Amino acid sequence: MISMIIEVDAGELPRDGHPDSMAARTSTLIYDILRKDHGCTRADIDVNISGGHVEATGNVRYDGEEKQVDYANILKETALDVLKNAGYNEKWLGFDPGSIESKAAFDLQSEEIHKAQNGWRYGDSRIRWGYATRKTKSNLPLSTELLANVTYSLDDAFKQNKLPIGPDGKVQLTLYADNIYKITLSVQQEPEISHRNFVSEVDEFVRRVLDGYINENTIIDINTSDSFINGGPVCDHGLSSTKQGIYYGQSFSSLGGGEYGKDFTKSEIVLGLQSHLVAEEILERYPKIKECAVILDASIGKPRPVVLVYPDGKADKRVAKVVEEEMDDLLNPRKVIEKYLDKPEIYELLAEHGLLGGTLGKKYRPPFKI
């Protein structure tokens, strides 16, 4: 029997003006406002943006008594700021921004959940993957770097008026042996340009951004459903925790909800960060390992996760034992929170740059030098 290893690396990433991206940023910034201005200590907030409506649900907890908070107005103003910062003006919104209707319904966090979170323990049961590779300077998958560079470049071209595009869109990319096998782009376009000319301009632009990774066999699909003029929240709805297994924190795949709109005791945030830090530390300690996937399995109320390690694609109990015995600083949620997450500006950074770019800095933010 012949065994084959197929070197495939793939992913998907939305642009800043994609409704899912805007919903994610909105949920995180709402918690930031509640935390700074109203004494909110715990939160799990989900946002749905659709048409002229924005809704938020979830649970919150305050130090002392619950404050009188106009949640609906905070939601509306925050969503409007996110829309405008993404480039949505009246031309691209398709409706008067001032007419947006907002609705927020938050429950108080239960005493049982609060008790389970006390003492720097995990606020939920979650499984998180961390991944690190020697193939890139950021240690992220090459597909992630390429995707981030394309979406970053498209957003910059939109803001600088260098392409006839709108703010909405997303990109899918599949690599085979470090060459792009296929890239699919959905890009909102200006109505004045013909579809054929639009595809030609975007195709040329993307080839420049991805120079060196596209060859004569690469499949490039751009707006294959024909024109894409009407986009954003008018034609689509965005959810703050959607597709997290694909876009999670510009890192590897993950299971469970997304990290947006959560306080930093939630496993989505702290466990996701821990898993990546452990994977990078393994590469630092073991020079012969080329890539490493780490699975951290945490239970609500527990101070440490169960560790599984897959160096170069194979499970290795010995490396996992080294992690459990020698990497206490990375497995202890309190130490990780205090070092990386307990900062006044942390939620603004998370909203803008995602989990890794928001907590670990510029190394994990596009544009990447490839």
The major sheet is characterized as: 4 strands, mixed
Instruction: Quote the distance from N terminus to C terminus.
Output: 38 Å
Succession of helices and strands: EHEEHHEHEHEEHEEHEHEEHHHH
Which stretches are poorly predicted, pLDDT < 50 over at least 5 residues?
1-6, 244-253
Q: Would you state the CATH class of the largest domain?
A: Alpha Beta
Beta-strand content bin: 15-25%
Helix segment tally: 12
CATH topology-level name of the largest domain? GMP Synthetase, Chain A, domain 3
Rg on CA atoms, Å: 21 Å
> Which structural category fits the helices and strands?
alpha+beta
Number of domains: 3
CATH second-level architecture of the largest domain: 2-Layer Sandwich
Shape: flat
**Mean pLDDT score, rounded?**
89
The beta-strand count equals: 12
Name the strands of the widest sheet in spatial order.
1-6-7-8
Overall helicity? 25-40%
SSE blueprint and pairings:
Blueprint lengths: L7 E7 L4 H20 L1 E11 L2 E10 L8 H15 L4 H4 L7 E8 L2 H7 L8 E8 L8 H18 L5 E12 L2 E11 L5 H15 L9 E4 L14 E3 L4 H4 L6 E2 L11 H19 L5 E8 L7 E6 L5 H10 L1 H4 L1 H9 L4 H14 L11
Parallel strand pairs: 3-4, 7-8
Antiparallel strand pairs: 1-6, 2-3, 2-9, 5-10, 5-11, 6-7, 11-12
What does this protein look like?
Helix content is 38%, strand content 24%. By secondary structure, it is an alpha+beta fold. It has three domains: 8-13 and 143-233, GMP Synthetase, Chain A, domain 3 (2-Layer Sandwich), CATH 3.30.300; 19-114, GMP Synthetase, Chain A, domain 3 (2-Layer Sandwich), CATH 3.30.300.10; 126-138 and 240-364, GMP Synthetase, Chain A, domain 3. Helix 1 packs across helix 2, helix 1 (19-38) packs across helix 12 and helix 8 crosses helix 11 (333-341). The longest helix has 20 residues, at 19-38. The protein starts with 7 loop residues before the first strand and ends in an 11-residue tail after the last helix. Mean pLDDT is 89; it is low at 1-6 and 244-253.
